[in-house]
């Protein structure tokens, strides 16, 4: 594969040891990614009665306030999203005294049960100790004030804001007051998923599904669960914190796509719940293995560029590589220690180029050079088609968990490759 003509020199996956090793396709992206402040706001809005205090300059506070007006959950202009706007004096000399006065007024006017104090880039860069300020104010007013750090210069997207907000919710949780057989679903609501159906059939109740529309009281009672089921990468840190603080074990499902891995997840789940594992789980594993065999001739040796999806990047690509597919380029915002096991599986079969998640303009020159069969993720479909590439997405990636998710992936990729074959046949017909 000739890659010398790519806009920037990129590393291959085997050369990546840390996130900084992953190079971008362009120096500037437009419109860029949402920052963690957005992810934090989208999570807090789902918590009834929780007040969000954004701490930063007028750009960030205006952005958040205007965004909050779009979502009814915040309650409009006088709703649960409020701002502490830092001016030049605050940035230079600090804002502790002014913030203490502002929170005094805030408590008097809103009577909040909890205040999520959300920092932004400027107070993070100047070293303002918001954690210490929150600690003093929390004791003064008798109100829990979790601090959420959303500095965008440390990451490349909004999902860190979701993760940090979920982690901060541990401070709201009370020690378990009763022994229950309930579980928590962390990372996805998954109310209609295969996993939720198995829990229902086993008479296992869901204590908390988070993030979702929930109350402070439900969050306080989150530790009254026998275990946590982790449904997204962002929820993993919350599950680890709950295990550390309350001794609640967890099993992850966000990182399972192969039939054997999914079956193992169910085995761990039902063993921990002291429930007999349903026979249909083994049957579904066998059925999925058979479906993999049916799809194998369609998928084997076909190429794609990975852009973005709701399924974890390296988990999904490791699964696709196990099916015989060949990723020519993988775009990602993350590269962490727990990705290594999936990266090693990819490298056993291929060594794709890897880049930071790019804007669509910088990808236009890549399509004609790499010439993949498929592109997974948001894209300019007409531009893709002009290069003979079929664009696909995973519309139910957020809804499905377990065997149904893997089948969904197989369906989407198989259908995309059938369309690719039809397109190729049309092109050959036009030329003949």
Roughly how many Å apart are the termini? 27 Å
Q: Which overall shape is indicated by the principal axes computed on the Cα atoms?
A: globular
Instruction: Please tell me how large the radius of gyration is.
Output: 24 Å
Strand count, sense and closure of the main sheet? Answer: 6 strands, mixed
**Quaternary organisation of the protein chains:** single chain
What is the number of helices? 17
Low-confidence blocks of residues: none
Mean pLDDT: 90
Number of DSSP E strands? 16
What percent strand? Answer: 5-15%
Alpha-beta content class: alpha/beta
- Roughly what percent helix? 40-55%
Major sheet: order of its strands? 1-14-13-12-15-16
Secondary structure layout plus pairing:
Blueprint: E1 11-12, H1 36-44, E2 47-48, E3 50-56, H2 58-68, E4 81-85, H3 88-93, H4 96-110, E5 114-119, H5 121-126, H6 130-141, E6 147-148, H7 159-168, E7 183-186, H8 194-201, E8 206-210, E9 214-215, H9 216-220, E10 227-230, H10 236-246, E11 250-252, H11 259-272, H12 279-299, E12 303-306, H13 313-322, E13 326-332, H14 340-347, E14 353-356, H15 360-370, E15 374-376, H16 381-386, E16 390-392, H17 403-431
Parallel strand pairs: 2-9, 3-4, 3-5, 5-6, 7-8, 7-10, 10-11, 12-13, 12-15, 13-14, 15-16
Antiparallel strand pairs: 1-14
Helix pairs in contact: 1-7, 4-6, 7-10, 11-12, 12-17, 13-14
Structure description:
With 432 residues, this protein is an alpha/beta fold. 44% of the residues lie in helices and 15% in strands. It has helices spanning 36-44, 58-68, 88-93, 96-110, 121-126, 130-141, 159-168, 194-201, 216-220, 236-246, 259-272, 279-299, 313-322, 340-347, 360-370, 381-386, 403-431, and strands at 11-12, 47-48, 50-56, 81-85, 114-119, 147-148, 183-186, 206-210, 214-215, 227-230, 250-252, 303-306, 326-332, 353-356, 374-376, 390-392. It has a 6-stranded mixed sheet. Helix 1 crosses helix 7 (159-168), helix 4 runs parallel beside helix 6 and helix 11 (259-272) packs antiparallel against helix 12 (279-299).
